[in-house]
């Protein structure tokens, strides 16, 4: 074999590179030791590792082995490998399989073991870092007793000359990407790739919303710069583009609750098991999802400590302590924090994540009436967040007994609708907890209306409590409702940049002075808009073409694009392009900020109206059960007269299920889901549909109907 | 015994209560079962538990046992018991000790076992909830086979009649208070208590700042409504009064960094072990304090997951991914979040807590120069938070090599000083990380100045990084610097209420109309101040006297009190009282907001100046080592010419240590601490003190001095 290897080195036309000999080495540590004793090596070099994997292959077929060639300290990762090469469960190959395919022992395999003759038995996964390495790279030649130092590109060229299938993988991102579906695998230049515009898939959305909603959603979020995947499943990074939307939601809501007298505070994220488990019904709902801290540094903790899934049991012992008299009421506290619910269901960015940001308000009142008034006020503001910031319509109502907050008295909700999937989605909930928790935690005041002579037991009044929460889920709903096949479509009140100004019409013939005049004018427009309180951004990056910028900002969903070129300057105007409709128009530079503000307001209203129409058009009132499943299958939610019984609600769910395909991805499974009750809308049908007590029957069970209830397949 | 017990029941003058007989019961569950089979019991009743404890007692003395009598579901807690009764380590008493003291088996002991004869052998800890119980309370009489139902107060009366020492404890707060030093123990009415104004200790500060700083600090925080203790050690609740200060700090800083182009984002709180441990130097500093999640619900996690102690290793893998070109620089991200460092040292609210709120900025730049400029800008804003919001002076400088951030290039800091203890305290730090992390995480761009023909290895440019953080510690520093023996003293720019208006001079002779006129005028003043942007609050609570309100707001540190009575109304004026100095003055109602704003500005400046003078007066330049320890013992920090060597710094620490008393509480131990380097101030002494290279010697080791370094005992 030795002479064959020498031939290969010659093939690789290495200038001055030659193979050095040393003792055998079965791993990199031994290899390093062997090399240390030698002289005449390059001043600095990197070593490689070569690993051979066998993917899961049907028994009827011969497996194509995978030879992974990487820098020795690269974080190679079989999950990434599996995704990059689209193979199933790669495992280290047995020595006999390696011998059969490559005629060598695993420890001896290197890039040079692959020849034109055996190239078809394997494919190569090649570490991008080898190509990036500025130092020379050490590889074994004929066996583990021989080492040559060459450049990364030389190894790649050699491999390409053998005709082996080669995929370059960026393993520097391995740990990040392991959990992600988006894999950074670049096909090698010579590999046959489908004819696509180069780099197109890196920029635009390649999956239509209508065809693969889940894939579309993921692309829109990552390519729209909202979010990145993380190496812990169910956790995501909120990038500034999405976090700024959350800040706008915070500002809107925080201002309002402060006006109501709510104060912000911060309770610890940790809860002792004892406190967490105090309210049984409540904790039953959360227990399976609680994350437990059991170790600090090297020490096992004596008592395990939970990370809050919500803060009722964290806060209420203190309410018992702090509320000494009716003069301490109402007590209204809120916190903006994160909570952890370690769900094992399929995670979904923004909608179902293991850690999420939210606010949780917890208040205590003298009476049910005062508590209820607040519940409704908060719900109105939750609808306001959707309506005024996100241009998303919601339907307010009450949750059924089955769907209400565990341990509470009743739950109000605003429910949204995702047209693309026809599924309902809970927007935010405002709960009246009644006196259940105050009895549990002994939160009492002396009733100020109690007088001597009245029964002693009437003296003690258990306070009435509420809790209410709104999470970053709102961002996901907004994306799903408005986004299109060009990417995000941000409503003007949510967008970090409402307007981008793109200078156009600069050509090779444009003089420096003309160029400067144009850019100055662009900056003037930006300033005028900003001074008027419009979030404008002048994109004067000179390394990108206007076309690139158009695509970039469309992907990111900026509501208005202002194009401004020499001809516009002459005409004292600018061209506006709406992100939501694509409509082009022009505006005079005179009072441009007023006109743009009007345009933004119009767009907000148009986006809301469009979403509202889509929701309204897809609420079907069903008079008989036969209409229900077809309506659901047709991406509707259904409004049906219902008896309010929990058992009947279970029946609705059961009877509206379709065929289940367990292997199908989350969203394509949706049509098979049973319908849950979304809410009992506060606004009940009137006129011909009005429920006549004792006459109108439940559509499912035929008993007397109590309310129209909105049912739907849901998130 | 049965007849004796009957006598006692008679003594208790129970109307119609009688003892019922049943089988023996060694615990409450058995007791309940026994009672279930009986008829003629009260409709509702509560059961008690009686537990006997023996505290740790020197062998030379006879232990006084503790009989704990509580409702069966009370959360009794030996730590609370220990504190409430001031006994050491109470443990369940052995049967023979119980027999010796009370002549009964443990299972048979009840309140009625205690008699005048044996009262001296025990003391009683009595559950407040028994007194609060509206239902009748079941107790054993002569043995566990007998039960009587009586009222809680009857039990207490009986016990008092025996002369036994009795302490009522509020066990409903047990779990909360376990971690707290503040114990809710009310001496029983008949117990001998020192002559104090009833309830005084619940309102005012009882521990002078000078005498017991640590006790004072705790009282000021809890009684000033800033914070509450929590049942997990090292975790605290930030109540609205302190959280609102944090919101003001956030607003100040967030506005400024956004102007610089920093964007907010949110990274997950969880880190995989692999990512966390990637940078070895860095993680070495944090590893012993990392909290690990190992379980979710009932499932053990396959890989343990850390809660971030800081986010360098969380974020930088993504910087490597996101920074593709020099056009992506600078990348400046910030997050407002909480981090966890599970310290095992004595916790200190705000200063050393296991979870704390902070902001962490992480930025990447093209060059060291650009990175350094930002480091200094951020440090200036950190000083600004202290100076402009908290009226606290700090000294900016560079950390020594020994004290810099692990893994960084250099650390800048602003250092504060606590006059009451003479200790220095790190205010906030702004680090230049250099290229260490960018090399570790491979964060590179192509150098735009690279041209063909230049060496290939110059093409790749590792970015220059910074990280900087400011935490809720700032609040603790502010409290320690300004607070006095009346409570908190809040600087005007930090206070949630800058002015409280207290209506005065309402007497029994005041007519309803006069009262209404006065209160209307108070509300008018509040409105005028609020309209001018002053955070005013009219305290028109009619159930509290002006004197009570004065104390209340003094405790909470509100900067200005406005007193307004009928005479003031006549004179068209109001009386102002400054919280910082107590100075009284009057202001005309005409343009009151302008005058109050001037007063607030003056107060801010006065508070800052006072703190500045105290800091300046306590920085001693020491020319010889002999001066150093006496200066430190005198509550100074010292500025000494120093050689900059790490070994010498260790020597300074070692040589400045005093006698160590391991049992002493944190703060009284301070004088024994060795002095650490606080910083090398940017502003070095000039004139006579100026360092002459090669001539001026290090005060500690005698080698050539490089810089004046600030040393101090510190937090």
Automatic annotation (TrEMBL), chains A, B:
Belongs to the class-II aminoacyl-tRNA synthetase family. It catalyses: tRNA(Pro) + L-proline + ATP = L-prolyl-tRNA(Pro) + AMP + diphosphate. It comes from the Eukaryota. SUPFAM superfamilies: C-terminal domain of ProRS, Class II aaRS ABD-related, Class II aaRS and biotin synthetases, YbaK/ProRS associated domain. GO terms for molecular function: aminoacyl-tRNA deacylase activity; ATP binding; proline-tRNA ligase activity. Residues 653-669 have a biased composition (Basic and acidic residues). One of its GO terms (cellular component) is cytoplasm. The keyword Ligase applies. GO terms for biological process: prolyl-tRNA aminoacylation. PANTHER family: BIFUNCTIONAL GLUTAMATE_PROLINE--TRNA LIGASE (PTHR43382:SF2), PROLYL-TRNA SYNTHETASE (PTHR43382). Pfam families: HGTP_anticodon, ProRS-C_1, tRNA-synt_2b, tRNA_edit. InterPro entries: aa-tRNA-synt_IIb (IPR002314), aa-tRNA-synth_II (IPR006195), aa-tRNA-synth_II/BPL/LPL (IPR045864), Anticodon-bd (IPR004154), Anticodon-bd_dom_sf (IPR036621), Pro-tRNA-ligase_IIa (IPR002316), Pro-tRNA-ligase_IIa_arc-type (IPR004499), Pro-tRNA_ligase_II_C (IPR016061). Its EC number is 6.1.1.15. Gene3D superfamilies: Anticodon-binding domain, Bira Bifunctional Protein, Domain 2, C-terminal domain of ProRS, YbaK/aminoacyl-tRNA synthetase-associated domain. Keywords: Aminoacyl-tRNA synthetase, ATP-binding, Ligase, Nucleotide-binding, Protein biosynthesis. Residues 243-491 form the Aminoacyl-transfer RNA synthetases class-II family profile domain. Residues 651-673 are annotated as: Disordered. This is proline--tRNA ligase. The keyword Nucleotide-binding applies.
């Amino acid at each position: 074999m030795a002479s064959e290897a020498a031939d290969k080195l010659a093939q690789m036309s290495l200038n001055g590179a030659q193979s050095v000999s040393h003792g055998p080495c079965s791993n990199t540590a031994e290899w390093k030791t062997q090399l240390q004793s030698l002289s005449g090596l390059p001043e600095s070099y990197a070593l490689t590792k070569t690993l051979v994997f066998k993917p899961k292959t049907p028994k009827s077929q011969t497996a194509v082995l995978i030879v992974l060639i990487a820098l020795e300290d690269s974080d190679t990762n079989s999950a990434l490998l599996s995704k990059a090469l689209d193979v199933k469960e790669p495992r280290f190959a047995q020595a006999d399989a390696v011998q059969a395919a490559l005629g060598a022992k695993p420890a001896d395999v290197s890039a040079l073991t692959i020849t034109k003759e055996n190239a078809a038995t394997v494919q190569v996964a090649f570490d991008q870092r080898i190509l990036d390495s500025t130092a020379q790279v050490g590889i074994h030649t004929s066996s583990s007793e021989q080492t040559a130092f060459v450049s990364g590109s030389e190894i790649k060229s050699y491999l390409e000359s053998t005709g082996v299938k080669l995929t370059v993988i960026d393993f520097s991102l391995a740990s990040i990407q392991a959990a992600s579906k988006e894999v950074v695998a670049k096909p090698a230049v010579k590999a046959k790739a489908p004819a696509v515009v180069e780099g197109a898939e890196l920029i635009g959305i390649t999956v239509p919303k209508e065809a693969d909603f889940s894939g579309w959603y993921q692309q829109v979020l990552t390519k729209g710069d909202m979010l990145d995947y993380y190496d812990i499943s169910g956790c995501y990074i909120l990038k500034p583009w999405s976090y700024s939307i959350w800040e706008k939601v915070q500002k809107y809501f925080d201002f309002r609750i402060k006006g109501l007298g709510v104060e912000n505070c911060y309770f610890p994220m940790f809860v002792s098991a004892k406190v967490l488990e105090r309210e049984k019904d409540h904790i039953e709902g959360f227990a399976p999802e609680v994350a437990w801290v059991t170790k600090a540094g090297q020490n096992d903790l004596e008592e395990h400590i939970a990370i809050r899934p919500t803060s009722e049991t964290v806060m209420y012992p203190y309410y018992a302590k702090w509320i000494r008299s009716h003069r301490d009421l109402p007590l209204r506290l809120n916190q903006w924090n994160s909570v952890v619910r370690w769900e094992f269901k399929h995670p979904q960015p923004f909608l179902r994540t293991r850690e999420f940001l939210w606010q949780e308000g917890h208040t205590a009142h003298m009476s049910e009436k005062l508590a209820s008034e607040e519940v409704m006020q908060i719900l109105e503001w939750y609808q306001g967040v959707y309506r005024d910031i996100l241009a998303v319509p919601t339907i307010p109502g009450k949750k059924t007994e089955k769907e209400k907050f565990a341990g509470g008295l009743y739950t109000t909700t605003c429910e949204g609708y995702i047209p693309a999937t026809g599924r309902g989605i809970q927007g935010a909930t405002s709960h009246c907890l009644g006196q259940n928790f105050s009895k549990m935690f002994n939160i009492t005041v002396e009733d100020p209306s109690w007088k001597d002579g009245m029964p002693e037991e009437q003296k003690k009044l258990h306070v009435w409590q509420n809790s209410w929460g709104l999470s970053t889920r709102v961002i996901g709903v907004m994306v799903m409702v408005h986004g299109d096949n060009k990417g995000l479509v941000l409503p003007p009140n949510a967008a970090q940049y409402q307007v981008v100004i793109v200078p156009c019409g600069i050509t090779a013939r444009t003089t420096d002075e003309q160029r400067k005049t144009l850019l100055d004018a662009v900056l003037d427009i930006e300033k005028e808009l900003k001074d008027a309180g419009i979030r404008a951004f002048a994109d004067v990056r000179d390394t990108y073409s206007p076309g690139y910028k158009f695509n970039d900002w469309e992907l990111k969903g900026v509501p208005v694009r202002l194009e401004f070129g020499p001809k516009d300057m002459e005409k004292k105007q600018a061209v506006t392009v709406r992100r939501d409709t694509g409509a082009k128009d022009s505006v005079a530079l005179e009072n441009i900020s007023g006109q743009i503000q009007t345009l933004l307001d119009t767009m907000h209203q148009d986006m809301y109206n469009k979403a509202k129409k889509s929701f309204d058009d897809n609420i079907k009132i069903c008079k008989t059960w036969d209409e229900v499943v077809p309506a659901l299958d047709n991406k509707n939610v259904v409004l049906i007269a219902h008896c309010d019984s929990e058992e009947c609600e279970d029946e609705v769910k059961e009877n509206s299920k379709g065929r289940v395909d367990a292997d199908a991805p989350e969203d394509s499974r949706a049509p098979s889901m049973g319908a849950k009750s979304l809410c009992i809308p506060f606004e009940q049908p009137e006129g011909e549909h009005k429920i006549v007590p004792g006459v109108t029957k439940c559509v499912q069970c035929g008993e007397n109907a109590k309310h129209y209830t909105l049912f739907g397949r849901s998130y």
